[in-house]
Amino acid sequence: GDGELEVIESDVMKVDFAAFADAPHSLRIIGNLPYNISTPLMFHLFNYLPLINDMHFMLQKEVVERLCAVPGNKDYGRLSIMAQYYAKPEFMFVVKPGAFNPPPKVDSAIVKLTPKADSERLQLDVKLLNQIVTSAFSLRRKTIRNSLKNYLNETEIDTLGLNSKARAEELSLQDFAAICNFVEQKQEAK
Q: Which candidate, 152, 158, 159, places its Cα nearest to that of 135?
């Protein structure tokens, strides 16, 4: 009923969030996430996206900056792309160390993640996207011609309208989606 609080003591990584949803988009998830599980927990929650209205998390400020980063920004990487595939992240505000007792050594920040509807999400193989993005950013300073050579040759990169001398951080989510779909078609054609 209204005003009742149910406390569940459990490993959050093992919680089936579907058990709490009485309708699509009905869950609002709020948490102060420990640094070491913040990324895996967000990806666990992305499995339940159709049930989630929005998520607000307090994280280390640098993680929020990575979640919200755009191409060309030094914070832009795998986390930015994969989170932005699933959701729209918004940097809400900074929480200074003095807000806590004892104060941590880092700034925290609040991020709002609004799930993308199916129609807003690019249609692709997410596992493959993750592999390609991970490969592209594993060698940040290398050009995509080198970092993606297991997936594409230089001619294929040109065919996609991309610059083979570009670095991963210059590619948008749409660019990675195009690469992902191209590689998937190529694998299926074998």
A: 152
* CA 146 – CA 92 distance, rounded (Å): 37
pTM of the model: 0.92
What is the full DSSP assignment across the chain?
-TT------S-GGG--GGGG-SSTT-EEEEEE--HHHHHHHHHHHHTTGGGEEEEEEEEEHHHHHHHH--TTSTT-SHHHHHHHHHEEEEEEEEE-GGGSSSPPSS-EEEEEEEEPPTTTS--S-HHHHHHHHHHHHHTTTSBHHHHTTTT--HHHHHHTT--TT-BGGG--HHHHHHHHHHHHHHHHH-
Contact between 162 and 175 under an 8 Å Cβ cutoff? The reply is yes
Give me the residues paired with residue 115 across strands. 87
The pLDDT tens digits along the chain (190 residues) read 577 888 999 999 999 999 999 999 999 999 999 888 999 999 999 999 999 999 999 999 999 999 999 999 999 999 999 999 999 999 999 999 999 999 999 999 999 999 999 889 999 999 999 999 999 999 788 999 999 999 999 999 999 999 999 999 999 999 999 999 999 999 999 8
* 31 vs 124: CA distance, rounded Å: 30
N residues, the chain? 190
